[in-house]
Here is the input.
Amino acid sequence: MEMTRRHAIVVGGSMAGLGAARALANHFDRVTLVERDELTTSTANRKGTPQAQHAHGLLASGYRILSGYFPKMMDELVADGAMPGDLTGDFLWYQYGGWKLRSNCGLEGIVVSRPHLERKVRERVLALPKITLLQGHDGKEPVFDPGTRRVTGLRVRNHSTGAISTLDADLVVDALGRGSSSPKWLASWGYGEVTETNVPIEVGYATGVFERHPGDLYGSIGAVIAGTAPQSTRYAAILGAESNRWIITLAGCLRDYPPTDFTGWKEFARTLPTPDVVDLVKDRAPIGPIVSYRFPANRHRHYEKLKDFPDGYLVMGDAVCSFNPIYGQGMSVALTEARALDGCLAAGDDDLAKRFFREVTRIVANPWAIATGEDYRYPKVEGRRPPGFTIVSRYMERAHRAATKDAVVLRRFFEVASLLAPPPSMMAPGIAWRVFLGGGGVLRKTSPARKATP
Ligand SMILES: Cc1cc2nc3c(=O)[nH]c(=O)nc-3n(C[C@H](O)[C@H](O)[C@H](O)COP(=O)(O)OP(=O)(O)OC[C@H]3O[C@@H](n4cnc5c(N)ncnc54)[C@H](O)[C@@H]3O)c2cc1C
Here is the structure.
């Protein structure tokens, strides 16, 4: 059915909401972004996104979508102190007992704090004349018309006055994150129960911010240091950020939570497979307190499985699917969904929800397979392993080893991890024989200290 495209509302002004607003501006006369927090121009952390204090990596897929929607934004971030670099030439990866080959793979990235990235995206989104921000307002619930079986607007509550009002809209997009109430609303409108898949991982984060000195960490812009599952549950991400900072997140899954006192935090870091975090902070104290976060489970809500769905309503971002954060996928997945929304609207109005949720299901399938595939290596993680799980896991271990010395495997590996290529492409013939030849034998300990020339 044709929909008028006068006004769209996005509720939730974080990365999914910002991406959605940008996409909708291509198709609607007006877009209103409703956000509960007061969004100042400061990059201080805000209440609605407590995760933003922790290391946030942007995958190459997300980097490309942001660069496409907001030309020159990456240059502006760099001018503000963010650091650009090659994903494997300038960023270091220790996984499965070895450093990945430090050599340019051609995939571009940037390291920056999450609040700073979000602020920059927000500035660019709000610079578009069609988009208006309604901040300090709670999206209370969408307005559903049982006669036409469509959502016709959103009830909002002004935070400071408590006043409730209704905004009319042709389309409402729920980008409320994991706390979204869409399943409850849909059930109350008679659409039945939204089923969900959960893979509990119980990961805890503890993050400190430190001064960055020239020459730190072999002159790189960051590193991931991961213990090998299932023996180790521990992990660290060191990310460069604006204002000469390192954001250092320690993480432990299956309730192996890192402490937030600096002494305990350093003890935890000492148990990582390389001493780099300990070396980096040995003569530094954290700037401000070490902050923590707990994430219970990978969760996928299957909106695509509902038999029917109201017109004028969509759900996206973490509200649909959220992943164990150590794989750094959420922002890039949300942005990929925003681009898909753009494509679905360009193709017309018929069956919009059905087409959009089909796309979302396709988009989340790969990051879900990557995140849960790694998490399932822990026997304690509950859930049905996919067919061939043990063989694929062994193959991927060899692929990790091969990527410590083979630049072709390395590139494909990061294309897959960055959601630019599907996981089965790791097994394409041109890659598989390199994995078999390069992934066996004793692990050659490559050094991250110098970049290899191809
Ligand atoms: C600890 C941690 C680390 C992470 N690390 C990474 C990483 O390295 N890389 C990566 O890509 N992703 C990472 N993620 C995931 C990433 O943060 C999210 O996927 C991303 O922010 C997109 O989420 P979202 O916009 O759907 O929801 P959220 O970011 O949760 O945003 C929801 C928004 O809705 C607003 N809101 C809530 N209720 C209301 C209401 N009633 N009315 C109006 N507004 C409301 C909130 O204030 C907020 O702005 C991490 C997540 C966690 C938890």
Remarks:
- The chain has three domains: 7-69+116-196+297-371, 83-113+198-296, 389-438.
- The longest strand covers residues 196-211.
- Residues 7-69+116-196+297-371 form a domain with the FAD/NAD(P)-binding domain fold (CATH 3.50.50.60).
- The CA atoms of residues 62 and 264 lie 34 Å apart.
